[in-house]
Design brief:
It is a single chain. This protein is 13% helix and 36% strand. Strand 6 (102-105) and strand 7 (110-113) form a beta hairpin. It is mainly beta.
Length: 118
Amino acid sequence: MRQRRAADPKHDLAILKTSAVEPSKVISVATALPSIGERVAAFGSPKGFSFSTSDGIVSAIRNGSEIAESLGREAYAQSGYAVDATWIQTTAAISPGNSGGPLVTMKGQLVGLNTWGH
């Protein structure tokens, strides 16, 4: 399988392009942000435990400026995150090692990537 990779550190995202993938193994991407109160699940490999999941609700949708204000503008800038980023705040546990894992709705649609906990 031929692969190409790219990264977007400002959005904490790695981009992979591969040859054909079976449609049954592809997750659909949501066309809109989830609603506040909507149930979601976070998947990842915290502390090396693969195929782990936690569930919760969307508690807020925040923009990069709001997060930068909360964390401190300098700390946010040093993290490399974009000010125009959209952040989904969830009650689903995001443990070390979950970063990069999918955040999905109960319909199985990808709405975000797990990044960090605060």
